[in-house]
Design a protein that fits this description.
By secondary structure, the chain is mostly helical. Helix content is 65%, strand content 4%. Among the domains are: 6-157, P-loop containing nucleotide triphosphate hydrolases (Rossmann fold, 3-Layer(aba) Sandwich); 162-220, no CATH class; 235-310, Arc Repressor Mutant, subunit A (Orthogonal Bundle); 677-798; 806-860, Winged helix-like DNA-binding domain superfamily/Winged helix DNA-binding domain (Arc Repressor Mutant, subunit A, Orthogonal Bundle). The strands form two sheets. It has a five-stranded parallel beta sheet with strand order 2-3-4-1-5, sandwiched between helices. A two-stranded antiparallel sheet has the order 6-7. α16 packs antiparallel against α17 and α27 (516-534) packs antiparallel against α28. The longest helix has 19 residues, at 516-534.
Length: 865
């Protein structure tokens, strides 16, 4: 701003424009500048009143202008003389002068805007104007932008990101008062809206016991309702209020759709006005060329609540109109959703029946499930295409029993008229097998159709995803990778949501093998694409988040892991067994580190009960093994024998099962070795040999390293020191190559004792010695995982080497060229939101807070020129 004539801050009500200016003003005053602040009100909307306020502000900067010059509104020479007087007065000052005009949107007089335009065109280098407004002012800024004389901060930059929200809440409530799940809920609920965050903080201070009903607490708050009524809606014309209320039932809208559902011929103009006035409305990325928008979630609920007062029939009619518009524009999942909400079940059924299977995507899942809940089975069985999609939907959403029942109905149908459905039956059978954890059968079902031509991209990528999962669980990682070599995803399908899921399955294979660094690298890039294409809570974004949670945890990035998994409860309850297993174990271990063993045990017991009801045998077995581990950490050995017996009974019951459930004996053997470690080390070592054999056969890198570590400890206990050291050295060498940390740290004192002895060996090679010393440093710091008390927040450390995605490096290189976020977005052909999302990720990874610091870090590490 020191070099610019104008700073322009635009944003909706309550987004912190005035607070930002007040903080910046304080910094300017400390630097010795002269700053005058003028807060405009509706009284200054006219030219004369505005001029009086403007000149008063200039007087505070010691710039005297004769008021008589502006008495004749229509006299252009009077305006020119006034501008000349201001310029001369400023030029005589030795200091930097800043004039802040807050709430500039109050100004309506065209002559007032012309006066400001003339002043910007002629003001000297030491006079800087700062305008804060809810709307973009009618000023011509193109020439100033070309001259780099404008600093602009827009609505997209004002909301808090997750890190800023956490900082704000901790500064107001104190550290550790809000857990990561609650923090994520607050962020999702408010979208970083500062005024609403302030309201939440006040409510949590006054009524902390109500945090479990946070959403309802905020929504029922009379303060929020009053704020939205008085600060946002009260100043709008009645036509615009009615218009926004009608659109509140839709997750997104554009001008064409708005006109169809409201019947308002001026819909395009009204939508543009909503955007221009920053009416808590945001642009949405879309595949088509239409400009799509959405409301802030809380504003949308506020409007929908007002709409509901007009009666349920009015709301249903809007849904029905929306359903027909979406259907006519091939937005079929939204058409089904709104037809169901409008209780037009017949039209929802027709949409699916008439849709070409090539248009199917993952967005169908939620509206199809909602439709199935309302549709009698006898009606479902009469509509064969809908029945096929229903079978596929429930087979992909942890409902294999229902999928099998409906599949038997579908197999009894003559599908000659639906060849694409007949060809898809093996996919449903394979998806059910994956959900049943019978990956061996999944391979048998899917391999015969692996290379068959399939025109439907959705079904093709269902096949690719399911077969990749099955191969990976069998340890056939080379076959999983080869699938993508022989069946590459073409560039035009890189944004296909089911193709993204297939790619996430490929990334999972690296995690299973133990290659954490590669899994993180691929997972970060895939998460960015998934979020950009489908949103923060899309299915693929959730799957990528599950992988990255595991990768971050393994690298001891505890806070990153916790924030990544926060509020993604579907990963814990309703996904494929491997995802459910992985996310439940990581969540349990995060609770153990951050909250203590009692919290971890409470979570495990809750999840075991839920997963037993779902018939998820392998996840239950893993959690029983984890429960035994936590109880041993706590020193409660009496309960472990009982749990071990229950685990071994579960394994015995399913001893003849194949596929992924072949892991069950290894899970029980690992738990047995832990229990027998002190009582019978020989038997414990024998149990670990079974674990190591399984890990070697199925190429489970981290499990093999864990078994090797525990075996080395037992060999030491049995005085077989040379064997122990050789095994430990081999194990640690592999762990170092994979970048593993927590697999070793989670064994606490056992690891500490082994590594301390190994570190004393003079023949230890330098790379391994550095790795051992790094682990020892983490084991002996105040956040030691051997402690049973909750673990404090770990701050960023210099020894952590962040992994930046190719997109992040590309953006950093453009930052180094002094490009603005807008220009970067234009250069890379991505949205401004995507640029800012990547910059936030870069700052978080590098532990910096500015573009300059990020650029310096990247140059110092030779990542950019």
């Amino acid at each position: 701003m020191h070099h610019c004539r104008l700073a322009l801050i635009t944003g909706a009500a309550g987004y912190g424009k005035t607070t930002l200016l007040a903080q910046w003003r304080h910094a300017r005053l400390k630097a010795g500048a002269e700053v005058a602040w003028v807060s405009l009100t509706p009284d200054e909307k006219g030219y004369a009143a505005f001029c009086a306020a403007l000149l008063e502000g200039l007087r505070r900067l010691n710039i005297e202008v004769g008021i008589s010059l502006l008495r004749d509104d229509s006299n252009a020479s009077a305006m020119d003389a006034t501008v000349a007087a201001i310029v001369d007065g400023a030029a005589m000052q030795a200091k930097e002068l800043y004039l802040i005009l807050d709430d500039y949107h109050q100004v309506e007089a065209p002559l007032a805007h012309r006066l400001i335009q003339k002043l910007l065109d002629h003001c000297p280098g030491n006079l800087h104007l700062v305008l804060a407004s809810r709307v973009n002012p009618p000023l011509s800024l193109s020439r100033l932008r070309v001259m780099d004389q404008v600093t602009e901060i827009e609505s997209v930059e004002l909301p808090f990101d997750l890190a800023e929200t956490r900082t704000f809440i901790e500064e107001n409530l104190g550290p550790n008062k809000v857990n990561p799940d609650e923090l994520s809920l607050i962020q999702d609920l408010t979208s970083g809206w500062p005024s609403c965050l302030q309201l939440i903080v006040i409510m949590l201070k006054n009524r902390p016991e109500t945090r479990t009903i946070l959403h309802d607490l905020v929504w029922r708050s009379s303060d929020l309702q009053t704020y939205l009524s008085e600060e946002v809606v009260a100043h709008l014309p009645a036509e615009l209020v009615t218009f926004t209320e009608a659109l509140s039932v839709f997750r997104r809208f554009n001008a064409s759709m708005a006109m169809a559902v409201t019947g308002n011929a001026d819909a395009a103009e009204l939508v543009k006005r909503m955007e221009d006035e920053n009416l808590l409305v945001y642009p949405v990325d879309a595949d088509d060329r239409l400009a799509w928008y959405r409301f802030h979630p809380l504003f949308s609920e506020f409007l929908a609540n007002r709409l509901a007062r007009q009666g349920s029939e009015k709301v249903r009619e809007l849904h029905r109109k929306g359903a027909r518009w979406f259907a006519n524009h091939n937005c079929l999942s939204e058409a089904v959703r709104h037809a169901s909400l409008g209780e037009d079940i017949e039209f929802a059924t027709q949409v699916i029946e008439r849709s070409a299977p090539t248009t199917w995507n993952l967005d169908y899942l939620a509206p199809t499930l909602r439709l199935l809940e309302r549709l009698p089975e006898e009606v479902l069985f009469r509509h064969h295409r809908l029945l096929f999609l229903a079978c596929l939907t429930v087979s992909l959403t942890s409902r294999p029993a229902r999928a099998r029942a409906w599949l038997s109905e579908l197999e009894a149908v003559d599908l000659k008229a639906y060849p694409e459905l007949a060809n898809g039956l093996p996919l449903i059978r394979g998806a059910i097998a994956v959900q049943d954890d019978d990956t061996e059968r999944a391979v048998q079902l899917l391999e015969p159709v692996r290379d068959a031509p399939m025109e439907n991209p959705f079904l093709r990528y269902v096949l690719l995803a399911a077969l990749t999962v099955a191969y990976s669980m069998a340890g056939r990682y080379a076959d999983a990778r080869r699938l993508f070599d022989t069946h590459p995803i073409p560039p035009q399908d890189r944004s296909n949501d089911m193709a993204l899921v297939a790619e996430s399955a490929q990334v999972t294979a690296y995690m299973l093998a133990g290659d954490v660094r590669e899994a993180e690298r691929l997972g970060c890039e895939l998460l960015e694409r998934s979020t950009r294409e489908g949103g923060h809570r899309s299915i693929c974004a959730n799957l990528c988040a599950g992988i990255l949670t595991d990768a971050f945890y393994e690298q001891d990035r505890i806070d990153d892991a916790r924030e990544m998994i926060a509020n993604r409860f579907g990963l814990l309850h309703s996904s494929v067994p491997d995802v459910i297993t992985r996310t439940n174990l990581i969540r349990c271990r995060l609770d153990l580190l951050q909250k203590g063993p009692d919290a971890a045990l409470a979570f495990i017991q809750q999840q075991i009960a839920h997963l037993r009801c779902l018939g998820q045998i392998r996840p239950v077995a893993h959690l029983l093994g984890e429960q035994i581990r936590v109880l041993l950490i706590k020193g409660n050995r009496s309960r472990t024998a009982e749990l071990l017996a229950a685990l071994e009974e579960l394994v015995q019951t399913h001893r003849r099962e194949h596929g992924a459930r072949a892991e069950l004996p290894a899970i029980a053997a690992l738990a047995r070795a832990r229990v027998l470690r002190n009582e019978d080390p020989e038997r414990a070592l024998e149990a670990l040999q079974a674990v190591r054999s399984f890990a070697e056969h199925f190429d489970r890198g981290r499990l093999g390293i864990l078994a090797g570590l525990l075996s080395a400890d037992l060999l030491e206990a049995l005085k077989r020191h040379e064997e122990a050291q050789q095994l430990l050295t081999r194990t640690l060498d592999t762990a170092r190559e994979f970048g593993l940390v927590r697999t070793l740290l989670d064994e606490g004192g056992l690891t500490l004792a082994l590594l301390s002895r190994l570190a004393q060996q003079p023949t230890l090679e330098a790379p391994l010695r550095e790795y051992v010393e790094m682990l020892l440093g983490k084991l002996t710091d105040p956040c030691s995982p051997t402690a049973v008390s909750p673990r404090p927040r770990r701050t960023a450390t210099p020894d952590r080497q962040p992994v930046l995605t190719p997109r992040e490096l590309e953006i950093l290189s453009l930052v180094a060229q002094a490009m603005s976020s807008k220009r970067i977005a234009h250069t890379l052909d991505i949205t401004l939101e995507t640029v800012k999302w990547n910059l936030r990720n870069i700052f978080a990874k590098l532990g910096v807070s500015s573009r300059y610091d990020a650029m310096v870090w990247a140059r110092n590490h030779k990542l950019i020129d």
